[in-house]
Each structure stands twice: as structure tokens, then as C-alpha cells.
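ASSEMBLY PREDICTION REQUEST
Request ID: AP-0331
Submitted by: J.K., bench scientist
Number of chains: two
Total residues: 563
Priority: normal
Notes: Please return the full assembly, not individual chains.
Input sequences:
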Amino acid sequence: MKILVAVKRVIDFNVKVRVKSDGTGVETTNVKMSMNPFDEIAIEEAVRLKEKGVVTEIVAVSCGGSSSQETLRTALALGADRAILVQTDADLQPLAVAKVLAAIARKEAPEIVILGKQAIDDDANQTGQMLAALLDWPQATFASKVDISERKATVKREVDGGLEIVEVHLPAVVTTDLRLNEPRYATLPNIMKAKKKPLETLTPETLGVDVAPRLATLKVTEPAKRKGGGRVADVKELVARLRNEAKVLP
Amino acid sequence: MSALVLAEHDNQSLKSATLHAITAARALADGVDVLVIGSSVEGAAAASAAIPGVAKVFRAEAPYLAQPTAENVAATALAAIARGEYSHVIAAATSFGKNVLPRIAATLDVAQISDVIAIEGPDTFTRPIYAGNAFATVRSSDAIKVVTIRTTAFDAAPSSGGSGSIENISAAPNVTTAKVIGQELTKSARPELTSARVVVSGGRGMASGDNFRMLEALADKLNAAIGASRAAVDAGYVPNDYQVGQTGKIVAPDLYIAVGISGAIQHLAGMKDSKVIVAINKDAEAPIFQIADYGLVGDLFEIIPALTAELSS
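STATUS: Completed
Returned structure:
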């Protein structure tokens, strides 16, 4: 069984993001970049399925500039067998990425495409669902447990009210949530071996996909800063001030 | 042109999230229709028709829609969209809305704008990015705007006074490649986390699931909902639906009491729009104190019972 894992290069989750003073975006120069944490979970799940013998080949794919090669080398170091970079400097938005992934999926014919439920930069939470619709495949989003058997996936999903269990026929799209697994770290030997694994570069043009953005970003601004830093000495003062000053006690 | 709101409901009644989606819809379009998809949805359909500003309520029912999948909801919604002339398709940014709407957008070959917090115009929206550390204002050039809205950013529409009409439409055929086979839903008599006026939230500092009972006693006094940080959920103290944060629930109550929560960026993303924030933590350097209006440094195992007692006096 072949599994396709989509990964994205994003600003590291620990970085305190700064808005550029000209309002055109956030500061990315000299800022630490990493694989989107939800995509690390996706790679980990694929690797575990391979270790269990369910999956025989893991193909990692990323869309973006040439620096996305680093993210793909990380995926290879973690256990992917080969990687595909769809290289473009376009302002990529979820619909375009879904179309690129759909084109790759039609070429590679995986049984499962797994990706993070959202990227921590745009927080869109759309790509997996859009990809499933474009391929006319079922989807299992926000997965906290995935079991593959025969031609089906049984997936436990985290939803607002608790958990939901869905059964989808393969091929299917799965998107990962936080508690699906705890990703491993790439070992130095595996990082070295990853340099020799195949990494193919394509372009959206060769795939016949139009990746032009649909949404124009007019401005990026900083939210109003919260004041904070208030202190109280004890419970009595807290209750008195909540009651009389803030007036929020029922 | 009208906006079509995809209702979220449990067949008998409308989820409050839909009321917020309708307010957003009314700000975007002259007319608002509501689509109710499910099985035996008279209650939810009637509730939708009673909301002021709702013109038509479309009821699409079938037994296989009792526990609907994204595939089935999208299929029926696309048929309803094709029957009308809609400028906008809107849902609340709940796990339901997030699961379904992108399928609709992709099939229509249009972009989706997720988690909108402000409307600047019928085609221009502001939304949070980077865990709410920046806001992006975007303009869509697509013919139909598919939008999910953050419920904390829009008031709930009134639930009576409207006189919409209800019309039955056919449900799309069952998409058999996906099926809901089970649910494990948290049952609670407390207010819903995303709409509660007061939230008491526990973090890693709570040290165990049993200790959350202390927060329950406090929550009882305040008629509060209970939330948690990712650390508390990962550690198994509480179920996943308690998680407040960038990838969990977004809340904006009048009062948020963060107990034993350090205040990571990702947690703040879910609660920094609360009117008043109280933080209780034994670490005076915890980042949560930087955004708290009232910070109390100390042992939560002493403070919480004392707070509960003080509220009873």
C-alpha cells in the first residue's frame, strides 16, 4: 500500500511572530522555519503504518520555494522513501495546494493521503478536505486514531462534542490532529541516509495546475495589545475586585 | 443576492453557533436562507424560520443523514446552492463547519475564507493567522464566497420574531464511501464552553484528572464551563473537547480563570479575547501573567478551595 504525505514549511511554532511595519505580511527573514507540527504527526503515522507492515511505500510531497527541500529531507530522515517538491514562488493558498496534491495523487495512486489538519501559519484547515473533494474521495479529518484494515480506514476524530468514529473506504484523505501520535526525532544516521534518497522536483506548470491565488491580501495588522500584568495579593482581594471593579461575578 | 447558511443542529434544535453565523450572513447579503440537513429536522427547521432576517429554510431529510458525514452534507448543500443564486455560503467555524465547507468550496472551484472575525465588505474579510498574533484582511474575487465565521466575533441572532418559510428539498443520494459508526460525546449539564459567560480552565499544574473536581466545585459557584490547556488533555486529565487554544476551541467569555496554565502562545490564541482574565499559578514568571488582568501567584491547591469558599460567603 502506498501512502502520500503532504508537508509544509512554516515559521517554527516557538517563534513570536512579528508583523512587518509596512503591513504587507509577517517578518520571515532570519526567522526559524520548521515542518508544520501537524505534518510531523502525519509523517510519524505513515512511518508507524510502514513499521506495522500495512504500508509499503511513503512518498512525501511539498509545494513551495526551493527551501522546502529542507522540509522534504526531514521527511526522508524520519522515514519517507522518496520525496517530491512542486516548486513555485507563487503565494500558495489551500485551493491551489489541493489541486497540486490532487494531480500528484492521480500520478502516484496512493491508497491514503495523509496531511496535517491545519498549517500553523495560515490556520486555514481546508487543504485536506478540498483535496478529498477534488479527488471525489472520502475524508477523515482531525484524526486521533487511525486503523487500516482491508480496504477501509476506521478513524477516531476529535470533534467539538468529544469523539466521532468514521469508517471510510480507501482510497481516502486523512488529516491529523494533535493526539494521533508523538513524532519521533530524526537520528543523525537517518539524516545522513536521507541525503541519498530520491527527491524529484516538478512545477505546477508541468502538472497542469493553475496556482494563482484567489484571495488578495490587502493588509496584515497586529491585534490590539492586551494590558495584563495585574496582580492581587490574595483571594479576598481577587473576589472583591472581580465583584466591584470588573463586575463579572454573577 | 442571498447568503445560504448551513445550519448546525441535533435535528430537534439549532446549535447556538448557527445563530452567530446568521448574524454574519445578514451583514454580508440582503437575503438569508438557511439549509437544514438531517433526519426528522422539524425542530431545527422551525427554529431557523423563527430567526429574524431568515427568508427561506430548506429542509433536506433522509435516514442516512441522521449522523451526517461531510460527504453527504456537502453533496446536498451543493444541490441546494445550484438551485438558488447565492453570493455567500456560510457556516460557523465549528468542527462541523470546518469539516464540510472546504469540500463545497473546492467543488465550486472557489477559495474559502476560514474563521472570519470581521467583515469589511461583501468580499473583504479579516481573519486571524499565526495563532491570532496577526490579522489578515483579504479580498475574494470569486463569484461565491465560502466563509466560516468565528462565533465569538459575531453576536447571536435573536431566536424569535422571524417569519421565514420552510420548504422541503431532496437530499442528494447517500455517499456510501463514508459512514459514522460511533460517537463518544461528553455529557454535561454545564454551559457550553464556546458560549459560556464564565470559563474555569485547568492546565498541567492540576497534576491529575481527579484534581479537576476542585475546578468543578468552583465552576458550580460561577455557573461556569470547564476548559483545559493542551497539556492537561494530552496528559489525560480531561477529554479533548475541553481544549482551549489555536487548534482547539476559541472562547471569549466575560471571565476566564486560568488555573495552573503557563500561557503558551497556542493557548492564548484560544482565550485572549476574554473580557477579564484571571491567572492562578505558582510560577511568577509564567507568560499567562502578562495578559492577565488579575494575577495571583501561589499554590492553586490552596487558592482554589479558598476562592470557592470566598464566593460562597
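REVIEWER COMMENTS: The first strand of chain B starts at residue 2 and ends at 6.
SIGN-OFF: pending second reviewer
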